[in-house]
């Protein structure tokens, strides 16, 4: 460290100078923080203030910079020194704006500011500039899996943007589900009539595009590697295998229709009953003429049964709404009305869901005389050569039987997601537990027969396909990050991600194409993908300390870590999202990032000037997720929402990165309480790294033992789920917790370090 | 109870002609603004917005559904539409912009025309009295209208109602807002003959429209 | 400001000794101050009101109004037609929309009008007096002639239905129109803007045919005014005025309440603010005397 020169720049602007004692701050930075250069500026983020720092770096040999000013989330354009490690002591949002004004609070306010300076100095000393990913690769070709509407759109969008595309389709021809449609739901003004699918034109464009290569009747036999260097084996039906390298993958494997045979109560199997796919077939055959049943019988009355085998709460059928089926039935009712207005068409629905401009389409159908009836169908039975539909009219509140020549069941979409890897991992674990210490396989264990074939055949340690969110759908974060999956550089688009209509699928395809382009560009530069886009740090492991416990490889939410033959972790930096979950998981603490490590946080925890047990000035450590909780704290400051001056907040990348050593260290150093604030976990999680907050919760469930060992109250550690909008709530939580600490008293663990 | 009706469809046995369009088509042809009925999307905002909502045997939403379900008699004989106060709250709130007030008036009027409207429905009676009153000369004679209304159920009940409202009536007369002499002669336009001829012609034109089915 | 001239459609209830005679009295006083010249449409007839639907068909009701429009266009060319009665305004406008938007109905209407020697070929717009005040004058201009402040009176603005729906005053919401409150404030009165029965139906014509159901509505309207501490209600609608005023004694008799809430027209409070006497403002035409307003009017 001989060449290092640490400098602290303290800003007295934004009112800080009037309220804080800067001489004390400077003294702390110098004596305790051991800063070699200390400068005070009245307007540090001004061009002139920033220039001072630049000059010091350029001319004075300053290697590390502490900014004692506003939150690390503010003025990021001004305080941007990419080659210099930088820590930020949050004196504005974290102290000035949240501690009660007035001289009564001068002492606690100043203590808080002093501590943030101490913590910033401590953090800074442990930081280094990330050297960058040594393993970056720059293949920018995009592989599209699936040649339906979604896949074709993704391919053409990526190709038109200038990227090479490989398109792999299982069938012998392109088109997928769209090829089976007579017409599609309108997607252009006036949204009144069924429209041509436009598929033929799209296929022609794809086939003619010089940047797109198409593999028909092919599947992926193997997918290995990482963004920028995926190695894929494309197998044809005949068994021939081609090896290709691609930079990113878009999975547009589409959906299958729900099996009619599973709906005997709704007449599945009767000659007068078809699903929507079956009706498309009949409409295609009629080609604008009178639609007949498959057995040739004329249709004078048709009833559409919505939500057939969908939105099922009994657990028997699909639990979700497939989104497109209402509009599809409206369209199909129009097939009949357009061919012959005298055909009676009744749509039985419980809630008609017509997203987008669907309302116009709905009105158009009403104008054509399609009858819409709010009713819940109980059974469909054979009656003569037709059917009886038995339903409850939900408006007129009576049981009704309605006869029809043809009944169309609006069944749902079943995603073509491949293997449910959670199921495979469970099986693998069971097998391992029953087996006699057999070494774990790097690839998944034998797949039971009833599992569907894999789509991607990934060689990843964590299984061959994309992790599924729920109901077999490969969706990711339900609010913020469409297309993202838990496999970096692989994006899901279309109905495999979530049920959707064709218009949404084409939008989805475009979005996924852009994400894939981002991924290959970031991979080429060794930068992280979303949500820490641009981050050059990556996990560094000190293998000599590793005990091969496999926690990191199992817990990585993104499947970035494989294992070598000796069961040591193998990090695929390009797959890593830099959440630090591995770092939080590691019991021997051998995983770290250059700018974020067990030490950068641990040293802050230990840097405090801890008041004694009788001071009545407790210290509360707040580990706050940088994605939602820390911004919420900043916003509390922005709105001048006051909270206890006894709290000291440290941002973390994700609660998943919290290593329990930080908590034990804090308690051992005399902190009176530890608060953890992270994102919502569970099925409707909001964790930006999907599993981070859930893993943290699991790890924390074990902390009670530690507390008991230390003879401490369980209240000394508390965790909270916080959303970015909770700016008022975070303040209230802090204040409530401060009250709790007051009630249970100061920690007896002071003065031992 | 299963509602079962017969139909001639493709050998389907005795099952509903319900949810066919026959009555809907009749309404579209004969009811003022009837072509809007099919556009209802069953949200129920009309029912929840009606000041007389609780008094409707079937709120507008249900009436629309009953028309689509082919319940001709139940609709036309219903007391429901006669509850409309013409406040237009449903009209301005209807997300589908259905002229619900006008349709309710139209259905009531059609039921009246067919002789299916409930007998002794007070609003029906008042409506007809009002029309007759205002078209007799061309302007409303409020005194005659009031008296006619109170005595429509006979002398005894009329006297009773008059006695109840007598202080009010006297108050109005004192305030110069009710004129007992209107019983003898009231305001009227000069060209009563022209108005009568004009209305007669209009009625004749309306009667020429396609006659009611069924 | 130059004199403004309009073809006036008074409607049946505004005739002398009819139920809204005092509306007409106060409108005349208000118009005099504002230099508005209202000329009655010669030989006008009833609009048919809303309630006539079961007696008269669509076409019959439309020709009744078409006759008025034709007479206005013939005798008062170029002048906007102005109504003070909510039902007159609504039914006229509704008929005019149908006639102007439906060629078949127009042809049929003219066939009938021919019997009265008339031919409808379009007319000037049909407007409510409140529209004239707000659009042709504006609150500031309406404030100028004020000579007496109404500061001591708390008014609950009861807009009712047909002045408000389905057409309403441009720029106002159906759920919470503010113009009545703004008119009150322009005259220096206190507008109880939190009055929550502003657009509740009084029962309309069904006050006669369904008295119990309507009186429940009227009770809500009056009670809420008491809740707000109102001195009186103010309304633009003659039927609202009559129903709410007339039936309070019935409600008192049947339900033991002690309602005595005066209800006046906006034009009455404007006339008073402009300096009219009790008589000129039509304040002698009430069953429940608006005492506070009368006192101000009586003050020299």
Write the layout of secondary structure elements.
The complex is a heterotrimer of chains A (753), B (214) and C (300).
Chain A: E1 6-11, H1 16-19, H2 22-32, E2 37-41, H3 47-59, E3 64-69, E4 86-90, H4 92-96, H5 106-125, E5 142-145, H6 149-160, E6 165-168, H7 199-208, E7 212-215, E8 218-224, E9 230-236, E10 241-246, E11 248-251, E12 255-257, E13 273-275, H8 276-286, E14 301-305, H9 325-339, E15 344-349, H10 358-367, E16 371-383, E17 386-393, E18 398-404, E19 406-409, E20 413-415, H11 421-434, E21 490-492, H12 502-524, E22 540-541, H13 551-555, E23 561-563, E24 569-571, H14 581-585, E25 591-592, H15 598-606, E26 620-625, H16 629-638, E27 647-652, H17 660-668, E28 673-678, H18 692-700, H19 703-709, E29 717-721, H20 727-744
Helix pairs in contact in A: 2-5, 5-15, 6-7, 6-12, 8-9, 9-10, 15-17, 16-20
Chain B: E1 2-3, H1 22-30, H2 45-49, H3 60-68, H4 72-76, H5 89-93, H6 100-114, H7 122-137, H8 142-150, H9 155-174, H10 192-208
Chain C: E1 4-9, H1 21-34, E2 36-40, H2 58-75, E3 81-83, H3 86-101, H4 103-113, E4 126-128, H5 129-137, H6 139-143, E5 154-157, H7 179-186, E6 190-191, H8 206-209, H9 211-227, E7 232-235, H10 238-246, H11 248-255, E8 263-265, H12 266-273, H13 291-298
Parallel strand pairs in C: 1-2, 1-3, 3-4, 5-6, 5-7, 7-8
Helix pairs in contact in C: 1-12, 2-3, 2-4, 3-4
């Amino acid at each position: 460290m001989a060449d290092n020169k640490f400098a602290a720049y303290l800003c007295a602007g934004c009112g800080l100078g009037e309220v804080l004692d800067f001489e004390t701050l400077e003294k702390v930075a110098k004596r305790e923080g051991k800063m070699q250069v200390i400068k005070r500026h009245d307007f540090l983020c001004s061009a002139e203030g920033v220039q001072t720092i630049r000059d010091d770096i350029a001319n004075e040999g300053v290697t590390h910079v502490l900014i004692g000013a506003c939150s690390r989330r503010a003025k990021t354009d001004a305080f941007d020194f990419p080659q210099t490690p930088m820590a930020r002591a949050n004196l504005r949002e974290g102290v000035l704006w949240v501690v009660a004004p007035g001289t009564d609070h001068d002492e606690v306010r100043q203590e808080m500011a002093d501590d943030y300076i101490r913590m910033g100095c401590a953090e800074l000393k442990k930081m280094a500039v990330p050297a960058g990913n040594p393993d970056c690769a720059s293949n920018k070709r995009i592989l599209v899996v699936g040649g339906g509407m979604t896949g074709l759109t993704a391919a053409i969008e990526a190709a038109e943007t200038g990227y090479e595309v490989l398109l792999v389709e299982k069938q012998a021809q392109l088109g997928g589900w769209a090829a089976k449609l007579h017409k599609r739901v309108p997607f252009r003004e006036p949204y009144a009539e069924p429209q041509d699918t436009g598929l033929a034109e799209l296929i022609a464009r794809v086939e003619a595009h010089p940047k797109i290569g198409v593999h028909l009747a092919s599947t992926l036999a193997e997918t290995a590697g990482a963004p920028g260097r995926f190695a894929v084996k494309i197998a044809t039906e005949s068994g021939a295998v081609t090896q290709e390298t691609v930079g990113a993958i878009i999975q547009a494997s589409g959906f299958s229709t729900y099996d009619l045979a599973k709906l005997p109560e709704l007449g599945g199997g009767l000659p007068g009953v078809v699903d929507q796919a079956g009706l498309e077939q009949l409409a295609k055959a009629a080609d604008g003429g009178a639609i007949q049943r498959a057995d040739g019988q004329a249709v004078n009355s048709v009833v559409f049964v919505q939500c057939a085998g969908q939105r099922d709460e009994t657990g028997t059928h699909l639990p979700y709404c497939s989104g497109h089926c209402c509009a599809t039935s409206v369209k199909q009712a129009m097939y009949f009305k357009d061919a012959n207005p005298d055909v009676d068409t009744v749509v039985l629905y419980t809630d008609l869901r017509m997203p987008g401009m669907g309302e116009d389409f709905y009105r158009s159908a009403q104008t054509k005389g399609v009858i819409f009836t709010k009713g819940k169908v109980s059974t469909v039975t054979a009656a003569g050569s037709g059917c009886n539909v038995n339903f409850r009219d939900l408006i007129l509140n009576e049981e009704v039987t309605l006869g029809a020549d043809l009944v169309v069941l609006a069944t749902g979409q079943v995603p073509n997601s491949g293997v449910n890897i959670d199921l495979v991992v469970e099986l693998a674990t069971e097998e391992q537990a029953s087996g006699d210490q057999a070494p774990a396989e790097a690839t998944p264990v034998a797949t039971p027969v009833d599992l569907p074939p894999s789509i991607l055949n990934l060689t990843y340690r964590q299984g061959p396909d994309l992790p599924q969110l729920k109901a077999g759908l490969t969706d990711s974060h339900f609010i913020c990050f469409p297309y993202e999956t838990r496999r970096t550089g692989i994006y899901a688009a279309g109905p495999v991600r979530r049920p959707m209509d064709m218009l949404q699928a084409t939008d989805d395809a475009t979005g996924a194409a852009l994400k894939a382009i981002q991924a290959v560009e970031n991979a080429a530069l060794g930068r992280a993908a979303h949500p820490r886009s641009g981050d050059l740090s990556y996990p560094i492991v000190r293998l000599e300390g590793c005990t091969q416990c496999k926690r990191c490889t199992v817990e990585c939410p993104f499947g970035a870590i494989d294992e070598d033959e000796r069961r040591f972790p193998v990090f695929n930096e390009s797959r890593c999202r830099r959440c630090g979950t591995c770092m939080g998981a590691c019991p021997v603490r051998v995983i770290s990032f250059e700018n974020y490590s067990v030490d950068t946080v641990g040293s802050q925890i230990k840097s405090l000037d801890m008041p004694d047990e009788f001071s009545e000035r407790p210290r509360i450590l707040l580990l706050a997720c940088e994605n939602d909780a820390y911004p919420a704290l900043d916003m509390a400051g922005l709105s001048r929402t006051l909270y206890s001056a006894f709290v000291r907040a440290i941002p973390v990348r994700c609660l998943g990165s919290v290593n329990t050593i930080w908590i034990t260290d804090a308690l051992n150093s005399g902190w009176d309480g530890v608060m953890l604030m992270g994102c919502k976990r569970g099925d409707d999680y909001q964790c930006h790294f999907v599993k981070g907050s859930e893993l943290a919760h699991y790890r924390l469930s074990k902390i009670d033992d530690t507390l008991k060992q230390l003879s401490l109250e369980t209240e000394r550690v508390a965790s909270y789920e916080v959303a970015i909008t909770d700016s008022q709530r975070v303040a209230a939580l802090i204040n409530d917790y401060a009250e709790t600490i007051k009630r249970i008293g100061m920690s007896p663990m002071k003065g031992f370090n | 109870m299963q509602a079962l009706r017969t139909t001639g469809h493709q050998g389907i046995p005795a099952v509903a002609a319900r949810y066919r369009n026959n009555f809907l088509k009749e309404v579209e042809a004969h009811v003022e603004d009837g072509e809007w009925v099919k556009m209802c999307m069953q949200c129920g905002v009309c029912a929840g917005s009606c000041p007389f909502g609780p008094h409707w045997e079937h709120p507008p939403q249900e009436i629309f559904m009953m028309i689509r379900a082919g319940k001709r008699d139940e609709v036309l004989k219903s007391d429901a539409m006669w509850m409309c106060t013409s406040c237009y709250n449903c009209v301005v709130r209807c997300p589908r912009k259905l002229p619900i007030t006008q349709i309710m008036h139209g259905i009531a009027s059609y039921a009246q025309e067919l002789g299916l409207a409930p007998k002794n429905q007070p609003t029906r009676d008042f409506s007809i009295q009002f029309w007759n009153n205002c078209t007799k000369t061309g302007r409303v004679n409020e005194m005659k209208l009031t008296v006619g209304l109170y005595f429509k159920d006979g002398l005894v009940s009329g006297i009773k109602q008059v006695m109840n409202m007598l202080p009010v009536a006297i108050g109005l007369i004192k305030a110069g807002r009710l004129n007992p002499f209107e019983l003898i002669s009231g305001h009227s336009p000069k060209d009563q003959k022209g108005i009568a001829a004009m209305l007669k012609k209009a009625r004749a034109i309306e009667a020429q429209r396609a006659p009611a089915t069924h | 400001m130059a004199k403004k001239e309009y073809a006036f459609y008074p409607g049946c209830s505004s005739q002398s000794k009819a139920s809204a005679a005092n509306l007409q009295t106060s409108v005349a006083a208000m118009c005099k101050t504002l230099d508005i010249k209202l000329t009655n449409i010669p030989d006008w007839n009833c609009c048919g009101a809303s309630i006539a639907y079961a007696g008269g068909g669509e076409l019959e009701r439309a020709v009744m109004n078409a006759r008025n429009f034709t007479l206005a266009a013939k005798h008062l060319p170029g002048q906007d037609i102005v109504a003070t009665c909510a039902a007159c305004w609504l039914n006229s406008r509704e008929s005019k929309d149908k006639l102007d938007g439906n060629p078949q109905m127009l042809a049929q209407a003219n066939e009938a009008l021919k019997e009265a020697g008339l031919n409808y070929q379009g007319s000037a717009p049909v407007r409510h007096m409140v529209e004239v005040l707000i659009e042709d004058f504006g609150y500031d201009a309406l404030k100028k002639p004020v000579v007496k402040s109404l500061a001591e009176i708390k008014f609950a603005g009861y807009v009712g239905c047909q002045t408000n729906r389905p057409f309403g005053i441009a720029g106002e919401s159906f759920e919470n129109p503010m113009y009545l409150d703004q008119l009150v404030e322009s005259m220096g009165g206190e507008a109880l803007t939190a009055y929550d029965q502003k657009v509740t139906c009084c029962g309309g014509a069904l006050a006669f045919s369904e008295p119990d159901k309507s009186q429940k509505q009227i009770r809500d309207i009056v009670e809420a005014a008491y809740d707000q501490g109102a001195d009186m209600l103010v309304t633009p609608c003659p039927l609202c005025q009559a129903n709410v005023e007339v039936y309070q004694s019935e409600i008192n008799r049947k339900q033991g309440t002690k309602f005595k809430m005066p209800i006046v027209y906006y034009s009455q409070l404007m006339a008073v603010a402009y300096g009219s006497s009790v008589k000129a403002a039509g304040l002698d035409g009430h069953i429940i005397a608006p005492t506070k307003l009368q006192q101000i009017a009586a003050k020299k």
